[in-house]
Design goal:
This is Major facilitator superfamily (MFS) profile domain-containing protein. The protein is mostly helical. It has helices at 2-14, 16-31, 33-46, 51-61, 68-77, 86-105, 107-111, 113-144, 150-178, 181-188, 190-198, 218-231, 234-247, 254-287, 290-304, 310-319, 325-350, 355-378, 380-383, 388-417, 423-451, 462-473. It is built from 22 helices and no strands.
Length: 494
């Protein structure tokens, strides 16, 4: 009953169409595990790429998630048809839909590693852009409607993504066992197609109408309007002259109209450029503050100093341990449950712990999960009567739980360090730093695997690679002085 009452409150505050779109987009983001599992098998079995080559493809394909602030700045500063959100949501949805459609229908595109990488990159561009736009829409809706529902709306979005992740992992393993990979690509297009049809359901107030404060750009808008009026005073005059010319009929030569039109176009382009420039400068000024720069530098270092060998482990699990797609899907479901458990544990027990200490414990925990992988690779678990499947399930749950314990302080610091007025864009920058660190870590993992000669059917140096990964896990601990000393989950003061 309480859940129903809570949902009714959200519905009355934001409307059914908006809640539906938020849930659908986040569910789709989580459900991507359904199709990306198929991509892993496409690279491994059909294209027969080595582990390092596959990891390189994934690293390039996920790069669009590392430039999320760019999408936010563009949508803030360049309205389309007077609107800043829904047109970009449509564009991003099309970018998410078309690549899967082409990969499902065209055998050439999915049979070439280059074409596949390009289509996957475009698809991630659309997904990352949709993520930024819906976050901005949530922020604006909260400010326009009821700020008291901010936490509730975020909870709905995270819950939708978790449900999507669990469903995608379960169905992904089943689909790989019973369907062709191209059919899986086509089936996934149903969700972005539904998302595209849902975009017109949400009404957006045109940006030329007065709006309450916008999370991504309220300071930017004031500065842009002042800059436009001070720097380009002829804009209003040219508009006035154009209106007067229309009232007087055909008075004035056509060459005069053409010249006025050119001035207007030039002025508009200049204003857009100045808007983008002002937004970028404001973002850079905020990010250069030591209280923001130092913690974000630590999280970036924490990613790039630890090589990511997840793709290599996927090859090992499927080729050496002979684990099928259905079981690996189940392991990912367990991982999602571990993620939710990690969130609960942090919010319930660790919010009063200093972030330095919680991050230290998180890295100790991560090293333990890698030691479990080393036990699996050395086959020591068999000697103790522990099955490979038990090790994989336990490692998946523990790994995702600990990663979430590490990610929660990042979210807390990101939210608390953002200055008023540019929270949305700066938070997107923080998330991009996290994503870029992951991408660089994947490149490092691909390089390490190539250096050690780890390839399909050749895993002799896998244990050495994991040992190096354990050592690297403690490198970020040396830089914990970058995190504010007394900062906790309750306070982020230095």
């Amino acid at each position: 009953m309480m859940m129903i009452h809570w949902f009714k409150q959200l519905r009355s505050a934001f409307g059914v169409a908006f809640l539906w779109l938020v849930c659908l987009i986040y569910f789709t983001q989580g459900f991507r595990s359904f199709v990306w599992t198929a991509v892993s098998y496409q690279l491994k079995d059909r294209l027969q790429l080595s582990p390092s080559a596959s990891q390189f493809v994934f690293s390039v394909a996920f790069f669009p998630w590392s430039i999320k602030p760019l999408y936010g700045i563009i949508s803030d500063c360049i309205p389309i048809g007077g609107k800043k959100r829904t047109p970009y949501l449509v564009i991003s949805t099309v970018l998410s839909l078309v690549p899967w459609l082409l990969l499902g229908l065209d055998s050439t595109s999915r049979s070439s590693s280059l074409y596949l990488m390009i289509f996957l990159t475009v698809q991630n561009l659309g997904s990352a852009m949709a993520d930024v736009v819906i976050d901005a829409m949530i922020a604006e809706a909260v400010r326009i409607e009821k700020s008291s529902f901010a936490g509730d709306l975020q909870s709905v979005s995270w819950f939708a993504m978790a449900v999507g992740g669990i469903c995608g992992s379960l169905l992904g393993g089943y689909a790989l066992t019973n369907l062709n990979i191209e059919t899986i690509f086509l089936l996934f297009t149903v969700l972005p197609a539904l998302q595209l049809l849902s975009c017109p359901l949400v009404e957006e107030i045109p940006s030329n109408e007065p709006l309450p404060e916008l999370l991504d750009s309220d300071e930017f808008e004031e500065k842009k309007s002042k800059m436009s009026n001070d720097t380009y005073p002829d804009t209003k005059k040219s508009n006035t002259r154009r209106r007067k010319g229309q009232k007087k009929g055909k008075k004035g030569a056509s060459s005069g109209k053409s010249e006025t039109h050119k001035k207007q176009s030039k002025s508009l382009a200049s204003k857009l450029f100045q808007s983008l420039k002002a937004a970028a400068l404001e973002l850079c000024r905020a990010f250069k503050q030591p209280i923001i720069l130092r913690p974000m530098a630590w999280f970036f270092i924490a990613h790039i100093t630890v090589p990511n060998l997840s793709t290599v482990m996927f090859y090992y699990q499927t080729e050496v341990l002979q684990l099928d797609a259905s079981f690996l899907g189940t392991a990912r479901v367990v991982g999602w449950l571990g993620l939710m458990l990690g969130t609960f544990i942090y919010n319930r027990y660790l919010t009063n712990m200093t972030l330095r200490k919680s991050l230290l414990f998180a890295h100790i925990g991560l090293s333990i999960t890698i030691l479990l992988d080393m036990t699996l690779v050395s086959r020591a678990n068999v000697g103790y009567g522990v099955s490979d499947k038990t090790m994989v399930l336990f490692g998946s749950a523990l790994g995702d739980a600990i990663n979430q314990l590490k990610f929660m302080p990042f979210l807390i610091l990101s939210g608390r360090l953002c200055p008023p007025g540019i929270e949305g864009t700066l938070f997107a920058l923080f998330m991009s730093i996290n994503n870029l660190g992951n991408t660089v870590g994947s490149f490092m993992g691909a390089g390490l695997a190539s250096l050690l000669g780890i390839s399909s059917g050749s895993f002799e140096n896998m244990f050495v690679g994991l040992a190096i990964q354990v050592f690297c896990t403690y490198i970020p601990v040396l830089f914990l002085f970058l995190i504010p000393k007394e900062a906790t989950g309750v306070s982020a003061s230095s």
